[in-house]
Amino acid sequence: MTDKIDRRCFLAKGVIGAAAAGAVHASIEEKTLAAALQEGTAQAAPADKPKTDIPPGSMPCGKIGNVSLSRLFIGGNLIGGWAHSRDLMYASKLFTSYNTEAKVFETLELSQACGINTIQLDPACWDMVRKYNEAHNPKIQTMVCISLDEDKTKMNDRIKQQVDLGATLLYSHGGVTDSFMMNGGSMDVIAQMVELIQAQGIPGGVGGHSLNMPVACEREKVNADFYVKTLHMDRYWSATPKERRVEYDWMRPGDAADHDANYDNMWCNNPEETIAFMETVDKPWVAFKVMAAGAIAPQMAFPHAYRNGADFIIAGMFDFQVETDVKIALEAVRKHDNRKRPWHG
Predict the structure, then answer these.
(1) SS3 of 145, please?
(2) CA-CA distance, 248 to 262, in Å (whole number)?
(3) What contacts 127, CB < 8 A, 6 or more positions away?
(4) pLDDT tens, 41-89?
(5) What's the CATH code of the domain at 213?
(6) For residue 13, what are the β-bridge partners?
(7) CB 17 within 8 Å of CB 107
């Protein structure tokens, strides 16, 4: 019998054992994930529609271009397994082991039932999402990140490929944009990317972790339809101390310091400055990493993002988190309907 223990059982027992050893420190999410693996609930999707007590039509929406988008997106990182796991090397594998195709379908069905109509997506996740959309109506909309290319023809081909696959919106991948600009890339390339996206008849945006991204785009009058910019508070124990944080000035050659200077759960080095600058920007703002990859509870992270100007937020969610997160988002939007930065879109 011992030899017949499969990989999923081994994983589940490992997680449950770790949770038992440190039960005092385990989060609710960690315990639920371990229990789901043990019980095998990741194996099959439900036969009928997911049940939720969130009334249809509760989720407020805004627009980017002519696309109506729920104020809360589901993030695609947990599907692809790109987990910011600090020094926990098993986290990405654990997530993809839990998120089987059936479980992803179940999660997306529940997300749509709760009013989420858009997923943020890396192109590597297209196969699963396209398969989901082929079997569901309405389909879930996709905001897809792409890399940059100085070659206009190659950039245009890349964009057309994503549009043909069904992308609803496109934007430049945040990490790619940061790296491109820190290494002397031209703002003309970013502006060209936006124009090529818009020529395909869909909204085009620019993504980045650095505040220099929207600052440079606004200064150089890049005609982006929206920005995808990180926002999270810095009051959590594993945040990079202020005196050690590195922010890069794209306009100063040679300022591309060590990209790993900040801890692997710090993506908004200057939240106050970000909030202040975005108040001057008359474009929709999609905020991501609002929970600092799980370091901040959604009960704190969502109100902070909406209150301080985000028009939409992206949150990576397992199925057992969706309904609770949607309820938190609904309450946060309601409470901050009359915030300082007007709602865009």
Answers:
(1) strand
(2) 12
(3) none
(4) 444 444 567 889 999 999 999 999 999 999 999 999 888 877 777 778 8
(5) 3.20.20.100
(6) none
(7) no
